[in-house]
Specification:
The structure is a single chain. By secondary structure, the chain is an all-alpha fold. The protein folds into two domains: 1-199, Growth Hormone, Chain: A (Up-down Bundle), CATH 1.20.1250; 276-504, Growth Hormone, Chain: A. 76% of the residues lie in helices and 0% in strands. It is globular. It starts with 9 loop residues before the first helix and ends in a 30-residue tail after the last helix.
Length: 527
């Protein structure tokens, strides 16, 4: 039988844009509640703890279920699971929009997380099985990564626009038209694909993966918010111990994750590469929004609109990388360049002060987005292109789980460092005679300082606010130096570890129907 390289046609490219619909919504739901908090608080009156869970449960469940849902998609069919996830995501969106109590909203957000965990690896797995030509897959993965990053940026803006005209539940109902469109178009345009050799569903591994990831991410987020205590350390230790049990479980026949596959550098290299990028990107994103709102005094919607500007960096770097790849430039070199652009971004951020124009922060954010999207796109393309097609979803799920952990670590570590610097510096520069309650609020957060300064008489309020803003800038500068060092290490790591990694183009028989396993010119043994 003659083996030829199959190229995607018009139908596959249209299907790719159909697959962007769930991806945009999943990533938007990470950030869509940012501006809705005051409205939710007024309507259903959650406690501070309940409010935290409303925010965090989505990301917790999303991260904890990614591996399970990736494996399930490989087993029962990625398109079938995509449609199931779409229905679950739509139903949970309705439940969240009309939640009448904090508990109901928390549960609905948890189900949204399950739906998101279905949709993300399913779309990546389908792309792997739709685009077998290496150059076409590079472009497809770049579009996929841009959709994922773009959704996170669009979330606050969409939220702000809806809240200007509708009630807070509208930020969830906006999902429904897109979900309906996906249910109509996916069966017509997206081909089914699965691993016909997948074994029985391993409920034990599924529960172990969830029990390992949830407490680790919870501990990391709590560490960032309130510092380390016995509960936080215990949660992280428990998650790590369960993670060891999960790995041991994978040594049995027919595992959920093939340890031999994950030990290959073309798999674990991209996971670590994207984890570093997400550590710095997510770790600094909160500081950017705080700079715009609390240092430069922008309203949330105005800050959200300005925060779209850095996406111009992505629109510039992505096509350049695609051209360089087609000219034969090795991915390891381009990943290193992406990391170094990130280093330059943080160098620019160290120039931002309360007196500098906000363009300094936006320039830094644009460089960071442009550089690290290069890294994340190539990491995704390298892993998706190297993973056997029949295990594409679980490989993509492993990549995204690593990215979630990297982002959570970035928030915790960067938040802790910046908070420590802020508290030390602001305490030294507060004017004498400030009431203890006011001093305590100012020393906690910049937001607290903004609130207190508005209640103090004229010059005293200005002095307190200026001291807080200077301290906040110092904290951000310190974290920028940390990220500069980490991204420089990432550049060296990529140039050495990824240098020998190459994506092997698929050689497939064009007569194969979609449900059949893809044939490789050089078969990869998967156990």
């Amino acid at each position: 039988m003659t083996q030829v390289t199959a190229k995607a046609g018009r139908k596959e490219w249209i299907a790719l844009f159909v697959l962007l619909l769930p991806l945009l919504l999943v990533s938007m739901d990470v950030s869509v509640l940012y501006f809705a908090v005051p409205f939710i608080s007024e309507e259903i009156s959650p406690t501070s703890t309940e409010q935290l869970w409303i925010f965090d449960i989505y990301g917790f469940v999303l991260a904890g279920m990614l591996i399970t849902m990736g494996w399930l998609g490989d087993r029962i069919g990625r398109r079938k699971l995509l449609l199931i996830g779409t229905v679950a995501f739509g139903a949970a969106s309705v439940a969240a929009a009309y939640a009448s109590s904090p508990l109901m909203l928390i549960i609905a957000r948890g189900v949204l997380g399950i739906g998101g965990a279905v949709l993300t690896p399913a779309t990546a797995g389908l792309i792997r099985n739709m685009f077998h030509d290496e150059k076409q897959r590079q472009t497809a993965v770049a579009i996929w990564t841009g959709g994922l990053a773009g959704g996170i940026g669009l979330g606050p803006v969409m939220s702000g626009l809806l809240l200007e005209h509708f009630w807070w539940g509208s930020v969830f109902l906006v999902n429904l038209p897109f979900m309906a469109l996906l249910l109509i178009l996916a069966p017509l345009l997206v081909p089914e694909s699965k691993d016909p050799g997948a074994g029985r569903f391993d409920w034990v591994s599924s529960l172990l993966s969830l029990a390992a990831i949830l407490p680790i991410i919870y501990g990391i987020k709590e560490w960032a918010a309130n510092g380390a205590d016995g509960v936080v350390i215990g949660a992280i230790a428990f998650g790590a111990a369960v993670g060891v049990l999960f790995v041991l479980r994978q040594r049995r026949p027919d595992p959920m994750i093939d340890l031999a596959l994950m030990s290959r550098r073309e798999i674990n290299g991209p996971v670590f590469t994207k984890m570093i990028a997400m550590f710095c990107l997510v770790g600094m994103s909160a500081f950017t929004s705080q700079y715009l709102q609390s240092v430069y005094g922008m309203r949330p919607l105005v800050a959200g609109l300005w925060s779209l500007l850095p996406s111009a960096g992505v629109s510039v770097t992505t096509p350049i990388v695609t051209i360089l790849l087609k000219k034969g430039v090795h991915r390891s070199l381009l990943v290193s360049v992406g990391y170094l652009i990130g280093v330059a971004a943080f160098a620019v951020l160290t120039l931002a002060t309360p007196d500098s124009g906000f363009w300094v922060v936006l320039l830094s954010a644009g460089l960071l987005a442009g550089g690290l999207v290069i890294v994340m796109t190539l990491a995704t393309e390298l892993l998706v292109g190297s993973a056997p097609p029949q295990r594409a979803s679980v490989a993509a799920a492993t990549l995204e789980t690593g990215a979630q952990l990297g982002g959570a670590l970035g928030l915790a570590v960067m938040g802790s460092i910046a908070g420590a610097v802020y508290r030390d510096e602001v305490a030294e520069n507060l004017p004498a005679g400030l009431p203890d309650a006011a001093s305590s609020a100012v020393e906690q957060t910049l937001g607290g300082a903004v609130a207190v300064s508005g209640q103090l008489p004229g010059k005293l309020g200005d002095t307190v606010l200026a001291a807080a803003r200077e301290a906040f800038a110092s904290g951000v500068h310190t974290t920028a130096y940390v990220c500069m060092a980490l991204l420089a290490f990432g550049a060296v790591f990529a140039s050495i570890y990824l240098r020998k990694v190459n994506v092997r183009p698929d050689a497939v028989n064009p007569d194969l129907i979609p449900d059949q396993p893809v044939q490789h010119a050089e078969p990869v043994r998967v156990r």
